[in-house]
# Entry
Amino acid sequence: MQRSKIRNSRTANLPIYMNDYKYNRYMKTLKPQDILILLKLITYKDATFVIKNISSALKISQSEISESLERCKNSGLIDSTKKKVMRLALEELLVHGIKYVFPVTPGERVRGVPTAHSVSPMKELIVYNNDDIFVWPHPKGTVRGSAITPLYRTVPEVVQSDEELHQLLAIVDCIRLGKRREVELATEELKKRLAYE
# Structure
């Protein structure tokens, strides 16, 4: 005789499979680090990668990388083999959704690592004064500016040895900040970098 499963009132109306641990573990919504991981994969130019190398480069655990890739696969941002970024889908998310999904509001002036239009390639495209500098807070930062929350806590540290990733994240921060002209310029730059070769 089979034992019946006891279901609590919060999950009583869900199908049985939705109460499954594995389902709940992977069917969560995107997290900010998923964007960071996808952008890191873009820097590999579709070359084969090893999760261990991404983990080391981004200072994110291998298990978190694996879970992120599963979320990205379920969201249509990476293919079924979890090896190839779906660039058009990522572009659409970044251009039209990132400022709503992971919004940002500039904070107080702090020391940190420059981002948005305070770093290349955006600083060559946008005229700004010293009061408009944006940074990811970091104790070893070389610039003072308005604090911007990075997509993941390790970003200010890992970009110091990865210029291409730094530039991609800065472009995304321009879009997250949401000023019209800056968003247009950042979108053009992002499309160039995501263009399939």
User: Anything to note?
Assistant: The first strand starts at residue 109 and ends at 115.
